[in-house]
Write a structure and sequence with these properties.
Blueprint (H helix, E strand, L loop, with lengths): L2 H25 L56
């Protein structure tokens, strides 16, 4: 390589480094702008209040009661035997 070629490569590398530095400064976030605001979450309490009487009262339907559909009393329906 000639002396001119080496000097040209050094100049091109220096110019591209400067351009890359300027462009990366515009694209990427600076350290001052890295902070982000977040919501503050309320502390979770271990106390649990009484449920509403509108839904939980003596007249409401009990969803855990077994429901029988039909008149079969077969206790093992997947056994294959009909008792």
């Amino acid at each position: 390589m000639k002396q001119k070629d080496i000097a040209l490569i050094i100049v091109i590398a220096a110019v591209s480094a400067i351009i890359s530095f300027i462009v990366s400064g515009k694209i990427f976030v600076t350290p001052e702008n890295r902070s982000q605001k977040v919501e503050v979450v309320d502390k979770i309490s271990t106390e649990f209040g009484q449920p509403s009487n509108k839904y939980f009262n003596d007249q409401s339907i009990d969803p855990v009661q077994p429901i029988q559909v039909g008149e079969s009393n077969n206790q093992s329906p997947f056994n294959g035997s009909d008792q």
